[in-house]
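Assess the record.
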Amino acid sequence: MRRVEACVVGNPEMAAAGKLRVFTAGPDHHVDEVADVLEAMAQEVRHLGDAGSASVLKLALNLVLGVQTVGLAEAVAFAEAHDMSRELLLDVIDNSGWRSPVLGFRAAFMRRRVYRPAGFRAVLMHKDLSLALGEAQARGVALPMVECAARRLQPLLARGHGDDDAAAVADM
């Protein structure tokens, strides 16, 4: 038996368009043996080296996503508390220097207030943030923003919305 670590980055729309990215780790010759399969589902396959490195990268990317998602949800709450429409705020962000594909994808959920089918389920976002926190703590690294983002997702999970997209934090 051989093991190839293959962490996939993307969302369901990217998967449908064949635009996923796959990061692999493990022995080069093991990765080479499955390269055809990985290349068939992704626009990019990048080998990172030793086992564990693809998982570290995936958690690092997801902790950025978690913090950004919670930050966007808080911007929505702040604007709405000042009688500004969610749509106005999200439109301005989408047409400004703050725009990013990741925020645009999350903003689409927030704009519609429809969180299923999820692009990234809240329960999985919380799991990844918790995993990153545990790994960071084991290495003596503080991640206070990630701690806050993980805490902000907890009420969503407690209310049975774990299968909703993590963007549902905007309505909690």
